[in-house]
Amino acid sequence: MKAIRYIPLLFIISFYIGCGGDEVEAPIPTISQNEEETEIFAEKNSSNEIETNTTDTNISSETIDIGEANISIVDEDNSTIEEEKKDTPVLIDEDIDYINTQFESIYFDFDRYSIKEEMLPIIEKNIQLLNSPQVSGKEVVIEGNCDEWGTDEYNYALGLKRAQVVKEALIADGVKEDRIRVISYGESNPVCLEQQDECWAKNRRVDFKLVK
Predict the structure, then answer these.
(1) Are the CB atoms for 184 and 206 separated by under 8 Å?
(2) What structural domains does the chain harbor?
C-alpha cells in the first residue's frame, strides 16, 4: 500500500522537474500593418524654420518660418499655399491724420532750446505713441518753431536747434534715428497771432508729424 501511495507523488515531482528546464517567453506585442505608423520630429535649422515630417500620407507637411512670419503649407496634392502674416496694419491717410492729433507739442522758454523739465512727460507720451505697433515703422518729422522776435535767420537756426534736441531725446529713449527727420519753420508757422506773451509762448514749440 505504501508503494502505491508514493507513485503519484513521484509522478508529480518528475513533472515539475521536467518543466523547469523550459524558458517561458512573454509574447511580443506586434503592430498591425493596418495601424497608422507616424514619425514626427521637430528640428530648428539655421534659418529659424521648424519642419514637421510624417510617414502618414493623410497628414500634410508644414514649414513655418519664425523670423519672417511666413507660412508655407504643402497639401495632399503637393499644391503649395503661401500665407504672409504682416506685423503691422497698413495705415491710410485718415489714420495718420488722427494719430498726428494725438501728439503734444513741446514748448520752450524765450530764446532757449533746452528741454524744460515739465516737458519730459510729454516727450515720453509721444515716444510711446511712436513705438506703438501701428506706427512703429513710420517716419516722423520734428518741426522746430519760434516766436516773431529776432531775425528770420536767427529764428530759423533756433527752431532747428529745438528740433534737434528733441530728436536726440527720442533716440536716447529707443526711437530709431533713421525714422526721424528735423525741420525748422523759424517764425513762419505760428499757431497764435496775438501780440502778447501768452501767444508768443505758444509759438515757441516743437511739433510731431507722421509722414503719409
Answers:
(1) no
(2) 42-84 (no CATH), 93-210 (3.30.1330.60)
Reading the block at residue 113, the C-alpha cell is: 532750446
Instruction: Of 60, 59, 58, 54, give the one whose Cα is nearest residue 40.
Output: 54
Compute CA distances 155 → 148, 149, 185, 206, whole Å. Answer: 8, 8, 8, 13
How do residues 117-141 score in pLDDT, each as one tens digit?
999 999 999 999 999 888 878 999 9
Q: Which helix (H) or strand (E) holds 71?
A: strand 70-74
Cα 111 to its chain centre, rounded Å, is 42
Predicted model pTM: 0.57
Burial 90-111 (b: 16+ CB within 10 A, else e): ebeeeebeebbeebbbbbbeee
